[in-house]
Structure formats: structure tokens, C-alpha cells
């Protein structure tokens, strides 16, 4: 064995530990012999199993730095490579960058394949495939373990049965339809039954003859797929009876691939499927079927010529796990090798230490390419190609109690088509534990989530991620949820784009913070062309800043307060109690978590959205507020964001260059907005995969010459002339038509019934209110006067502020002032009896006032029929209606701006009627215009939500 003192310094870029020791080289070649000593490339051993099982433990090898030099060719593993214990470094690598495949299966020579002659079989094949399909007698080919057909999809890391790969490409179990799905038409035994009907255009005549049929589908939800065995196909009634029920229930399907989002109507999701594992459905190249009774394989080759020659390489997968690395084995490295055809995982590790995968290709697995569970430390996956697998890299480690880092690194990899079979659990990267780094990866075309994280202090940065959530709904390209304690995580400097929904169901997002996920920092990312760039699903303390949010198709950001409704409070509190969040260590790291129960933990408090730049087409909102928690503006504190009105405010969006120009550049320099990360700064910094693949590949160039930038557009449109109608309860924005004769000075009462002081009945000027001199001071007097009168249940006090005509009432209960929903009612003020009876609105100001907006929306958001809610015991009121309205109380610099008016310019030029933040921004604008006097605040009323914002 050759011995040299060298430094095993493998990769400069990734700072792999450098170890000085004796080195030993062991050569392995598929043409070698296990009776060779393996000391030189001319005397290689034959099998990796021999190297690992016997040679690594031998004296003279053990304890040294060992290089296992794999020579060109296909290294078939005879059994799982079980790496038990090592005491030095062991590096498995391709010798001199040769093309090396390590395969968990057996090669089937093309001479084993024959055209189908048995007329019974030919009759069952579709006409078009009878002369294309080839058969193999597996027993004669020496294969006895056909594996088991198991469920795949929702929550499952799949162990495949025997699969077939031709020239490295996976075949599919024969299925129909080959693309898209069939809808369930009816469910005769109801949603929890196991029968459903469908319309397959008569094709099912042959399904009834199948011996082992399966179905794969999205049964109830667009985020929960499953394959299921079938017990019976009835081709007369077109009914399938399942052998096993789906995880959730059955539903009728409305999937329509011709519609955007695959949707026929509304949000109906689930209820569509394919049939799988049917001989009669080998109707396309690339499909196969195994007759398990007669142990016969049938394939329609997916080669260019649709047949097989001796140069085609066909493999059948046999091993469940290809390589297992025990925790006793440390400092193991795999480099420059293709690993493929494993029924479950490529590499399985548990509690591993110091393991490195570098420049690998891992493909064609049923489960994850690399799965490291338990407490994995210093495990690195670098510069590798991972594709056509059941999941990419799934890794957890570190010590959460003591917040000790795992030092796991997943960097510079190219990961794609990582949910080859089954969508939901097959994440490209699943990161758990403490401080893993996921950086510079390129991830794309996953059926469900690209990066899923749990735990603490992870960094997800400089990744290029796109076309995720490809076949599902309610999904995030980067996704986590349902835990308050997963804190300290950062998602920054990523390019995230083209995450769009093609299937029915809830939205998909670039980053999805599901079910009260809290306290992530999302900064310096560039988002473009996603349905929704990111959401906050009712969680707390999330910060979204310094991001470019370009061209959302639904909304840029979506926020809600789901914890205030039927949230997951019990579950979340349970998880909180199982974390040491009250220790000094956790307190110092996550102070807001320490005191979470002192607040209202289910409320979406502490979220901040600031210094982001947005561009959307007209009508697409920047921040969409849905459900609970709308009126509390501090729940989602959005400020100092810039809304671009033209694509010309970016250097070259078509080339993903979002450097700011024009108005955005001016805003950017005053707001210290950093330069957006460029496309060539994200994704792998090195060519990925084994050397033999890299030499044939064009290096990806992302540098483009942007077209010359168009001039800055500075056009402003003429303001809208139509002013939406104001409140029926005069609020100062229009003349008071209810009490038109009240004098224009002072504060006035109109009292109909005053049992304690009957002389106060009638119309009187109020001294206290007049002295106060403000509209607010006058209106606050109505309630005081009504109480002074003895709080009569059958009486009201109206207060009118002369100079503006603004008024309110002091009375018992909760009121609506309205023009009616659709009728031509001239306008009335009446008790909101529904809310008084059902929503405690007579006793709670908040419950009374929150009625206006939903009632107005319920009426169809009519521009000229606003709704005002008035809480009698305080006289407080709130109006919901159309438009952004501005109240300028005093404007020393421009007296003509004083008053309460509809923001016509903003409605036309800044979308203030549909964009809350933009409306609120007008308060600051007018305050500055009026001279920035701290005692002259300006209020902007965003009427669609009945909410307002006062500046300063
Ligand atoms: C990894 O190896 C280095 C170098 O031998 C060592 O210092 C470090 O402690 C190891 N890490 C783990 C988690 O075992
Ligand atoms: C996922 O959707 C894409 C785009 O519609 C399609 O090309 C692909 O075949 C689908 N994958 C599966 C497994 O259905
Ligand atoms: C006027 O009334 C308002 C509202 O009730 C109150 O906040 C303010 O202190 C009063 N000002 C004076 C001078 O009485
Ligand atoms: C109604 O609201 C009042 C004021 O917030 C509160 O004190 C009371 O408990 C509430 N009643 C019910 C039945 O919720």
C-alpha cells in the first residue's frame, strides 16, 4: 500500500478539516477481483462491500487516512454498504475523476428483454404498445426480491418496490392518465366511505381485469396526496372500491387543468386521482409493470429509439438502503461519485459526526437522497447534484436544550425533481435541530416544499429557488409552521420566484409561515413572479425587511390573525411547555419567547414589515389582511416601504436585476435600502456534481447585458372626480344634513329625553364642549351629557360641533347609521340589534365598532352606501365605505388644506382606496405639507376596513 505524508485538504472553499497522517489508497474496479490486494490501479479489488466489510478494519489500514479509489464503471452493491467504525479519515472517491456509478441494484442485459408473444398478455396491452413493450423473466434474470407496493405521498418517506432505470432515467409504474388526473364524480358511501365513481370514458373495462391495481390522488386536500391499493373496480357502474381509506376523507373533484389554478369554481380542492400499476395502462414509453405472480417485468423503453440495444444500461433496484453510516464512523467522505437505484435512501446516517458529501450525484431513490437523523454534527453536503429522489437532504442535529450548533452545512448543491414519486413529505431540504446552514443551493421543480425547517438559529441564505409547490396547494417554497419556539432563524439573500399554484386549494407562497409560526427574520431577499411572496399565518414577532417584492400575482404579502379564531393554542402551548424557554440561556437568546404568556400569545403581536420595495400590477395588494386582527394596526406594523409604480424603477426585471432606479432609487438612498442580491450571487459557487458530469456541461452563465433602461416615468394621472358618499352620521366630511340649522360656532346638544334634568331637553349650546374648542372635545360630550341625564334607555343626546357639522350620539347600545345595503333608503340611524344580541355589542365598544366593515363588505362594498357603527355609551364611531379619507385639523402652511376630505389624487395615482399602507402614508404626507407641527396631527381613514392612522 502506498504511503505518503500529505495533507488531506479536500476543498478550499468549504474548509473541510485538514488532517495530517499516513495515507492508504485502495483501488476498486468492477473488473477487479476481491482476491487482489487493491494496492494499485493495476491490482484493484472488485467490490466495495469487500473493502468496507473486510479491508477497512485491517491492520495497516485502520487508523490511517484511507482513500478508496473507485475506478470507472458500475459498482453494483451486493448488499447495503454498512460503514461501522473508522478511526482515521476514509474518503470514497472517483479515481482521477472517472465516471463512477455506485448502484443499489442489478443490471439487466438487453439480451434478457424480448417482445411479448403471449396472446393473453398482448390482448391486455393497449393496441399502441403491443409491439413496443418488452418482457423479462425476472427469475431467469436472477431477481427474486420484487419488493412490496407501499403507500407514498402525505407524510411518507417511501420505500419503492423493485424499480427500473434505463440509462439512469427512472421508469414510472404504468398509470393513467399520464398527465393530470380524473375527478371523483360521486362518493356513494359518503366522505368517510371507501367507494367513489368517476368517468374514464370507457377505459375502465380493462381496469377490472387487473390483479393488483392502485390509485394515487389528492383525496380531500390539495396538500395531502396518497397512493392507495384498490380492492375492486366495477366497470359497469364505474366505481372503485378502495382496500384502504385515505388519510383524510374522500371528496368529489373539481380539478380542471384548462383553468388557472386548475380550478372549476371556488376553492373546492381534492377529489382527483390516477390509476397506477396496471398492465393495461402501459401506453407510453417510460412505463413499466411487474406481474408479481409470474415474476415478469414489462417495459416500454424510454430510449430515443424506444427499444433496447446492448449499449443501453438497464438497472433494477434491489437494496432498501444503499449506504448506512453508523455513528461510530467519523470523518467519512464521499466525493465525485454517482449513487443511484436505492429503494429507500441513498445514504442513511444517525447521530453522525464529521461526514462530508462533496461533488456527488444522487438520483433515483425512493426515499431521501441523504437522511441524517438524531443528533448529526458537522455533516456537510457540498457541490452535489441531487435529483429524481424521494426527498433531497433531510438532516437534523445539535442540542436544542443548550442551543449548541449542529454545524451541519448544505451548500452549493443543485437539487431538482426531488419529489419524483409522492409530493408532500419529499422536501428538497429538511432541516432540524440547531444552526444548520443552507446556502448557495439551486432548488427547483419540486411537487411540494423546497426547504422545510424546524428548530433554532438556522441560516438559509443565497439560495436560488423557483418552481416549487408545483403540484400542490397550501404550500411554501420555504416553509415552516406551528411552533412558537423555533426562533432565531434567518432567511436572507435568496432569489425566490415562480412559485405558482396549478392545482385547486389554498394559496402557495415563496415563504410560508404556517399556523402561528413566529419570530423569523426575512431580509434582503428578492422575490418575483410568485403568487404570494410571503405570508404571516397568525404568528408573532416576524420581521420582513429590505426585500424586493416584485410582481406578485395574488398579493405581495398575506397576513392574518388565525390564532384569534380557532387557532392551535392548546397544541402550541403544549410544545412551549416542552422547551426550556424559561432558562437563562433561552431567556437571553429569545427574550420575547420568555415572556410570551404574559401577553396574548395567540394574537399576532410584534410583526414588522418595513423598508421593502414593492411593485405590482394595478389592483394587486401589497399587504392583504384577512380574517381576524384587521383593526389592530400594531399587529402588523408596516412602515417605510416603497411602492414602485413602474417597472422602470428597477434596472432590468426581465434579467432578474432589481437594482433600484428613478423614484425607487431616491427612496432607497434615504431609507438606506441595500443593493438587492444579484442572480449570479445566489446558487452554487462551483460547478456541481461529479467531475465526469461537469466536463460535459456548459457552465451556467447568468450575466446578461440588460437592455437600455427606459426613462423614469413621472406621469401622474388626473385625480378621480367622483367622491364616494360620506357617512349618514355626519362626520365633518360634508355638511350636516340632519341638523342643518345648528350655528357654525361652538358645541351644541340636541336632547330628546333627560329625566334627571328635564330643562336640558331641546337644543342648547354646551359651555364645556365649546370651551374645549376641538371637534373631539365636543363630540366626547354627548355621552357625558346622556349619563348626566340619567342614562335614559329611551333617550339620546346628539352633540354637533358647529364649525365642521360633525356629530355623534350618546345613548344606550350599539347603532348603525346607514343608507341601506341596496335599497334606496334615504338614510337611517338604528340599533344594531343583531350585534347587540349575538356579539355583546351593547357592552363592548370594540365589538360594536368592528361591525361596520364586514357589514359594508357583506353588502357588496357599495361605493355610495357606507356603514357607520356608533357605540352609544361613549359616542365613538367608525365608518366603513369606499376610499381613503384625510382629516387635517390645522394646516398652518396651507390653510386651504384644512378639513376632512376624500383623497382624490391618491385614489388615482397611489391606489389609496385599496392599499391601506398607501392611504396611511397620506397622513404623513399632509402633515409634512402643513409644516410638520407635532400638535397638528393628521388622520388618514382607510374606509374599506374602517381603520385609521394618525400621524405623528
Ligand atoms: C470534526 O472533526 C474535527 C477535526 O478532527 C474535530 O475538531 C471536531 O470536533 C469534529 N466534530 C465533531 C462534531 O465530532
Ligand atoms: C407536476 O406538475 C407539472 C406541471 O403541471 C407536470 O409537468 C408534472 O408531470 C407533474 N408531476 C406529477 C408527478 O404529477
Ligand atoms: C378637549 O377634549 C378632549 C377629548 O375629550 C380632551 O382630550 C382634551 O384634553 C380637552 N381639552 C381641553 C382644553 O379641555
Ligand atoms: C361584554 O363586554 C364587556 C366589556 O368588554 C365585558 O365586561 C363582558 O364580560 C362581556 N360579556 C360577555 C357575555 O362576553
Automatic annotation (TrEMBL):
Residues 701-732 are annotated as: Disordered. SMART domains: PbH1. It holds the Pfam family Beta_helix. Keywords: Signal. Residues 329-416, 428-560 form the Right handed beta helix domain. It comes from the Eukaryota. The keyword GTP-binding does not apply. Residues 1-21 form the signal peptide. SUPFAM superfamilies: Pectin lyase-like. Gene3D superfamilies: Single-stranded right-handed beta-helix, Pectin lyase-like. Residues 701-716 have a biased composition (Low complexity). This is Right handed beta helix domain-containing protein. It comes from Littorina saxatilis.
